[in-house]
Amino acid sequence: MRSLDIGVSPNSECRKSKMITGRKPWRKNLWENQGYPDNYTDASFLEELKKNINVREVTFKEAFLGSSLITQQLCIIVFFSLNFYYMHNNLISSEVLFVCLCITATIGYIFYVIVDALANVPLFSCAMAWKAMMSSIQKLDKKRHLKAIVYFLLLGFVLSPVLKTLTESVSTDTIYAMTVFIMGIHMVFFDYGLRAVIVSSSLSLNAAVFASVCLASRLATPFDTFVLLTCSILHFLLCPLLLSKLSNYPLMILIIMATLSLYGLYQVDKVLTSIFFCSVIFINFICPYLFVRWHAYKDNIYGPWDEAVVEDLG
Description:
Blueprint: H1 10-21, E1 50-51, H2 60-88, H3 94-117, H4 126-139, H5 142-164, H6 172-188, H7 201-216, H8 222-245, H9 250-268, H10 270-295, E2 301-302
Antiparallel strand pairs: 1-2
């Protein structure tokens, strides 16, 4: 029994090829009937094909410094978690922690002003540095900053009893699991300095504050809740602003923050210390190595099938 061939015979292919060859040359014109089949692809169609036009080579150093920003944010979460741990286990009083937070915020504010003023000042130029600092202090909207602090303290203190009871009925295990998940959302949507659709500073900050509210329900008093929320604002809002001014020293910041995080976790649990250490190694060494290695296989193609880009000549 002879099999049924539903394909096109070689003779018909040859006749079709001869018919097409005898016609006028194909042009890239969709609104004109040139006598070619709808699925015909001419050899000249790929003449405008271009590959890897805007691809930039990435070095391991660049990938390492970029991944250090993720580690910095992870360290901030560790610092905040340690503050909660010490408060929850009565290892430090909320009054002492609140005073420490106020002192830290004041020092950080002064340091932020100094670093911002000396950003464009040459080294070892004392006169220019002093002049730049005085000018920066005069330009500060001190009244607005003071009002913001007062409003936060008043509203935070008044709303703390309400915030403490929001998730009080939820079990502790659920609270901890939810906090880990929400902190993951905070890290995913955090602004690491790249323009991307997934970046959302407001969502990242709100996720961190919500995680703080969840943990606040495990504390003893409303004042403890107020202190934890203050700690949350200091870590997740003000600390990234200060670190953005120190972006020229990423390696130094990474070493300091990672060392402090390892020391703090070591005082709490050695297993957590090992997990954090492995995470730092994975984020800062393994991931950059794999990224640089796999980046060599990146292959972007550009051709006549891309959307037309209309340039504004006005």
